[in-house]
Design a protein that fits this description.
Layout lengths: L12 H11 L6 H6 L3 H10 L9 H14 L3 H11 L7 H9 L9 H16 L4 H8 L4 H24 L23
């Protein structure tokens, strides 16, 4: 049971408008219904959202989000993103699983994707990047893209705090974390 009672329909017109904009006709997520109860928190959350077309591709964005959610054990948000975006991001089932169980240097990732995952891992572990980790990112991404990686990792860590702190149950439609398996993902062409 959530620790804060979420909003129930019918929603105020302004809130319904926000839900329609974000959810594109689908029912609003429990996280959104909970935060929308608090005008200031909902406004800050929406303002910080990074689901728009930023400097990273959809695939790159989803790799960062999925890895961040996996490292923070946030199955709720990982499952929502995998369900909603993995297909469009052209992530294979092996790659989706590798966001949870794989190493940053798993062979299913390109060199650029390995740099992304290594950066997320470092940010999670130390809240910083070494000069080598930053240089690895810059070998593949421009400055705006690197800043976007930092913002995404931080924002989705905050989402994990919200989900865990509020005790939100996994969305029914959301994917589940894969069981840990010893085999690394394979290269997809």
């Amino acid at each position: 049971m959530p620790r804060v009672t979420p909003l129930s329909p019918p929603y105020a017109p302004e809130i319904q408008g926000h839900f329609d904009q974000v959810m594109r006709g689908a029912p609003p997520l429990l996280l959104f219904r909970t935060l929308a109860k608090f005008e200031r928190a909902w406004g800050k959350f929406r303002a910080g959202s990074l689901l728009d077309r930023g400097p990273l591709s959809l695939r790159e964005r989803e790799i960062v989000i999925d890895r961040t959610c996996a490292l923070t054990a946030c199955e709720y948000e990982w499952g929502v993103h995998v369900t909603a975006f993995a297909g469009a991001a052209k992530l294979t089932p092996e790659q989706v699983a590798a966001t949870v169980t794989g190493r940053s240097d798993a062979p299913c990732w390109s060199a650029a994707e390995q740099a992304l995952i290594a950066a997320v891992d470092a940010l999670h572990a130390r809240a910083s990047l070494s000069d080598a980790e930053f240089a690895a990112l810059r070998a593949h991404y421009d400055e705006a893209q690197v800043v976007e990686v930092l913002l995404l990792a931080g924002f989705y860590r905050t989402v994990a705090y919200l989900v865990g702190g509020l005790g939100l149950e996994r969305e029914e439609m959301g994917a589940r974390f894969p069981a840990a398996q010893g085999a690394p993902c394979t290269v997809s062409v």
